[in-house]
Structure formats: C-alpha cells, structure tokens
Amino acid sequence: MSYGNQASRYKEAKILGSSPEQLVLLLYEHLLVSLRRATLQIQKRDIEGKATSLQRASDIVFELLASLNFEAGGELASRLAALYGWFITEITDVSRTLDRPRLERLIAIVGTLHEAWIQAAAQLQNGANGANGANGAAPTPRLPQAAEVKRP
Question: Considering the entire predicted model, what is its pTM?
Fold first, then answer.
C-alpha cells in the first residue's frame, strides 16, 4: 500500500471518528488554508490557482451552511447562515476583483469564528470528560450548542 493511500485512509478514519464539533473545526481550518493560499496566489498573479483555492473555499462554506441545524440552532443558526451567505459573496467578489485587502479582512473574520469554535468545542469536551462547573452542570458552549450541527 502506498503512502498516499495510507494517508487517505487515515484522513477518512479521522473524519468518520470525529464529532460534529470537530468536523466544523476541520472545515474552518481547511477554509482558512484555502483563503490564505488564494491571497498568495493573487499576489503572485496565479489566476488559475486563485480560482481553484477560492472555489474550494466556497465549497467549504456551502458545506458549513449545509451542516447547520436550524431546528436546534434557532436564531443563531439563521445568523450563521446569513454570515455564510456573506462569505460566499465576498469570496465571489474577491475572485473577480483580486482585492487582497478584502480577502484579508475575510480571513480575519473566519479566523475569529474558528477561534470561537475551538473554545466551544473545548468546553463541550471538558463537559463530556466530567469537567463540570461548581453546580455540577456542564459548561455551556458559546456557539455549537445553540447552533448544533448535523453530521455532513
């Protein structure tokens, strides 16, 4: 078995064994990589590479949108959906205009959301491991609990 096949099987096993919160984190990480890569490609005038990276970023945002659970998430899920729609608009406009500062602002916003998901996932993990608050209740995560995600 080749290294490529082993790596692919490892990634698949990791994804299948991940919680919904971990999958969201993984999507955000890949989104950030694609956006950052597009920034460099715009700088180098690699238009074809930029198009590929921004298309991948769009695909990831659509996956995030599809993973929202509007029944459990209520207003927060709706707000995230609107934000993801704005992400798509920004990605599309940056692809057309090659506006690096605009892309860098988008990266900053996505990075902030990624950090919030990291904190929320850690709170969920701590709650699952018995790291409860003084009243014995699990800590309430800021983002995933209100906008629970369904497994893609």
Answer: 0.75
